[in-house]
């Protein structure tokens, strides 16, 4: 049986570019994603970000798990909005990720993720604790494509398709 995860992909419409704003500002869809913590990801940016998600056990409600994992990784509850199922996505590892999405205004004062233990440096016998997510923010869809781990790009494609249909 595959390992299962559930996550929340928040999205919003970017505000129109104000008159006189610098070039390079984006109009359109933005998504909320988090930079993975720990020494492996510390100096990486491209394809080092993820949709807030986590594992759940058989019999557990995937939406409840997604909301729990979002709160653990962000340090604040997910917005109280109506979530809809975006789909289930198989990763190259075989893991199945169930993703829920909602349009929401989300602007926490700070990100305070739960932590995980890791022997670092490897072979040192010294256990250190690292945040699962060390940064999170809104990105325009085109930038999110460069930041998300490659296995999650089909999730972004599904969101683009779903939001274009509404």
What does this structure look like?
The chain is an alpha+beta fold and 166 residues long. It has a single domain, classed as Nucleoside Triphosphate Pyrophosphohydrolase, CATH 3.90.79. The chain has 3 helices and 9 strands; from the N terminus they run ββββαβββββαα. The strands form 2 sheets. Strands 1, 2, 3, 4, 5, 6 and 9 form a 7-stranded mixed β-sheet that branches. It has a two-stranded antiparallel ribbon with strand order 7-8. The chain is globular and about 55 Å long.
In DSSP terms (H or I, runs of 4 or more residues), the helix count works out at 3
CATH superfamily: Nucleoside Triphosphate Pyrophosphohydrolase
Mind telling me the CATH class? Alpha Beta
Overall number of strands? 9
- CATH topology assignment: Nucleoside Triphosphate Pyrophosphohydrolase
- Based on CA inertia axes, which overall geometry fits? globular
Average per-residue pLDDT, rounded, comes to 91
